[in-house]
Amino acid sequence: MSHRLIVGVLVALFAFWADASAQTAQKFSIQASALGVKLTGIANEELAFGGGGEIQLRWNPSAFSIGLGLQTTRHELNANTITFNGGFLEPRYVFAALGESVGLYTAARLVALDATFTVAGVGELNVDGTAISGGGGLLIRLGSRVNGDLGVTVGKEYYDGEAAEGLTVVTRLGVAIGIG
């Protein structure tokens, strides 16, 4: 199934869910998300798209929040893979509400990356880097302590001080649970 179809179905599902709002009402939340990643600098379409996940702890004092987390994605073509692991800092600001059910947000993400390139018959190469991205999304209230998150960010990766070719486009589908 195409990642566009999955995102479309989930958007439709969330659009009809009742009682949604912006950040969780609790001061802290934990969020887990599935990620779909498109690397525009890679010519092979199979290798260019990968999936993964993230987990983050968010501090939600107001419409502004800050998340700290870990993410991983994997891109495969036959026996060749690229795995990206990283820790990130993500400030987010909910700037508008669509009724009482949906909040629109903008976010930036700073990532410390470790990229592992595995080529069949050759071996592995690890490269440390950084990434910066920005974008936005929808926060959808699913309960008094639970929000859905549907977002997209576009960013740039840097390795050894040099910008990688192309952009990185990340689609995100997550659930945030208020914990305090």
- Strand content range: over 45%
Strand order of the largest sheet: 1-2-3-4-5-6-7-9
Overall number of structural domains: 1
Distance between the termini: 37 Å
Largest sheet data: 8 strands, antiparallel, barrel
Helix content: under 10%
Could you explain the architecture of this structure?
- There is one protein chain.
- The protein has 180 residues and is mostly beta strands.
- It has a single domain, classed as Porin (Beta Barrel).
- The chain contains 2 helices and 9 strands, in the order αβαββββββββ.
- The protein has an 8-stranded antiparallel barrel with strand order 1-2-3-4-5-6-7-9.
- The longest helix is centred in the N-terminal third of the chain and has 13 residues.
- It is elongated, with a radius of gyration of 17 Å.
Write a brief structural summary:
The protein is mainly beta and 180 residues long.
Furnish the topology, listing elements before pairings:
Elements: H1 3-15, E1 28-39, H2 45-48, E2 49-59, E3 64-77, E4 80-98, E5 102-119, E6 123-141, E7 146-159, E8 162-163, E9 168-178
Descriptive labels:
Porin, single chain, elongated, mainly beta, 2 helices, 67% strand, 8-stranded antiparallel beta barrel, 180 residues
